[in-house]
Amino acid sequence: MVEKERVLKINKKFQIFAYAYLLFLYLPVLLLPIFAFNDSTIISFPLNSFTFKWFAGLTEETYLHESLKNSLFVAISTSILSTCLGILASRASARYEFFGKKSILSFLILPLFLPEIIVGVALLVVLMQLGLALTLWTVILGHTLICTPFSIAILNSAFANMDMSLEEASLDLGETRFGTFKRVILPMVTPGLISSILICFTISLDEFIIAFFLTGTETTLPVYIWGQLRFPAKLPGVMALGFLMLLLSLLLLSLFEYFRRRTNRVIDDQVNLEFGNLFKS
Amino acid sequence: MDRAISLFDTDSKRGLSLIGLPFGFSLLLLAAPLILIFFLGFWKQDYLILERSFSLDNYIEAWTEPMYRDLMLRSLGISASVTFATVLLAYPMAYFISFHGGNRKALWLFLVTIPFWTSYLLRVFLWKVILGYNGVLNSLLDWLGLIEEPLTFILYNANAVVITLTHAWAPFAILPIYVALEKIDRSYLEAATDLGDGPLKRFFRITLPLSMTGVVGAALIIFIPTIGDYVTPKLVGGKDGLMIANMIQVQFMKANNAPLGASLAVSAMGIVTMISVIFLTFNRRWLRKRGS
User: Closest Cα of chain A to B106: distance in Å?
Assistant: First the structure.
């Protein structure tokens, strides 16, 4: 009994720490809606009255609409491209043993460990040397590079959890390799594909540094926000915009969570394992 | 796989042909640019024209000029502090979720990751609002009557950068440590208790060494990228909190001295990689000593 009481006491201490830490993690996010609805151009306390005018103001910013369109184009292209690359790499990794497998895979997830500014600068230098113009496509290439590791991590578990006998059955019944891949394997990993697309989309939509280095005249949403942060008068509008983006991210994240759970049938044990697998050394 | 893998058996061929495209993409867009940037450090730039003659001048300048050296040392100090603080805070959280989370583990992990899906730029900016002279924290402390004058050591210096980055990288520490803790066979812990280990001794003899892979993974994935953080020092660092990435950006985009920027970038990466390798070696040695 004494032992049990002590365990409960320790548990309580951990719980207090966990809630305090959680508060620290949520502090900035909680401020976002507060200032988005606060009727004052200055971002500080005490608060004024409640208003919707910052949201209404967003509808008149044509430059914002332009960069939102650009960002959506970049994020959609990036999510499709990196998921395609992710399919190839993780299928190879989950199904085959091949020469140099370990080194090739570690090389593919290297961007995860590199500072983004290095990736941005390095790509910028190559493009300058080749004399290529900076467009949204150069941003897409950079984003695809940093999103592919996430796609590989997610799809690896999807391919590894797949029942191989179904694939063999399809081959035995006379389907070609490509036909089997298209009609048997891909449908089985669809939830994984969707979560990969959602995660890459979200990362690309929020990525700033690479976009900052690689955009030409057309800017993405984070580059637009960066420009706005210099003007105090624009800040409440930026808060409103940030709040809307948070809602969008939460929606995408919930969708991701839903599909991830369908990828991994055993929910509790598998939570975030695809992410954790990156660190298996 | 026991047998040696030859380049030419069917499995090998199929695997390689699948991974060929992503590998080629990474070679072209990652390996080639990194090699180019390494060589760029040896070249010279005259306004917009690159002069491809070999010289060590840029590297010598990057390593000897006091301004660059100070920036580099400060960046390393900030990255190391951030890594240490983040792992120190994240470990008990991951431990709590893994050992006391009950059937709410998934919920806790979800709660921990949600804040990080807000725009990164805005999160950093909001820290400026929190830590500022008339900011949230100072208003709160003043309202509670704990301070007479607003605290000024928490904004526009290295402290602010460390606080903000410790917040920004939290999930990258919590998740890998959690995964490592989850993998620990709970029967080892029971065995240790049965053999007379107290909770503390048991933690240091079993739990910590077995979860070290997660701690090391977390440390590396935080330490290496934070050295190149540009946004946080620019927004909350003030003059005394600027880091090497800010200088790299200036050299590339404003000073038109890409070769010097490249040599700074390569030097920073070289130093960080070396520190990581030393860290890994020490960790391996420590684990081996524990294991025996």
Answer: 6
Q: Which domain holds residue A166?
A: 60-279
- Select the residue of B5, B114, B134 nearest A98 (Cβ to Cβ): B5
Return the pLDDT at A179. 86
Compute the distance between CA of residue A156 and CA of residue A273 in angstroms, rounded to an integer.
11
Contact across the interface for A238 and B122, Cβ inside 8 Å: yes
Whether A273 contacts chain B with CB within 8 A: yes
pLDDT at A26: 93
Mean pLDDT on A265-270: 41
Tokens of B251: 């050299």
Residue A139 domain-assigned? yes
**Does A34 map to a domain?**
no
Complex prediction ipTM: 0.86
Q: Is B224 within 8 Å of A115 (Cβ atoms)?
A: yes
pLDDT interval class at B82 (50, 70, 90): very high
Is residue A21, in this structure, part of any structural domain at all?
Answer: no
Please give the domain boundaries of chain B with CATH numbers for all domains.
41-291 (1.10.3720.10)
A104 contact B CB<8A: yes
Label residue B181 exposed, middle or buried (CB < 10 Å: 0-12, 13-18, 19+): buried
Is A189 part of any domain? yes
Distances in Å between the alpha carbon of B233 and those of A107, B173, B191, B216? 29, 21, 48, 25
Lowest mean pLDDT among A73-82, A172-181, B282-291: B282-291
Task: Please tell me which residue, B7 or B138, carries the higher pLDDT value.
Answer: B138
Taking CB atoms and an 8 Å cutoff, what residues of chain A touch B101?
A: none
- CATH number assigned to the domain comprising residue A153: 1.10.3720.10
Tell me, what DSSP letter sits at residue A50?
B
CA atoms within 13 A on the CB side of B167: 30
CB A78 within 8 A of CB A204: yes
Band (pLDDT 50/70/90 cuts) for residue A152 is very high
Structure tokens at B204: 């240091």
Interface check for A232 against chain B (CB to CB < 8 A): the answer is: no
Which of B6, B14, B16, B26 to substitute to test the interface with A, most A CBs within 10 Å? Answer: B26
Q: Is the pLDDT of residue A134 over 80?
A: yes
B184 touches B203 (CB < 8 A): no
d(CA B192, CA B202): 6
SS3 content of chain A, % helix, strand, coil (to 5): 80, 0, 20
Mean pLDDT (whole number) for B245-258: 88
CA distances from B131 to B127, B135, B137, B160, B232 (A): 6, 5, 6, 8, 13
- Say how many CB pairs under 8 Å bridge A and B: 276
Interface of A with B in 196-225 (CB under 8 A): 202, 206, 208-209, 213, 222, 225
Average pLDDT of the residues of chain A = 84
Q: Tokens for B89?
A: 């805070």
pTM for the model: 0.86
Distance from CA of A90 to the nearest CA of B (A): 8
Instruction: Quote the number of domains for chain A.
Output: 1
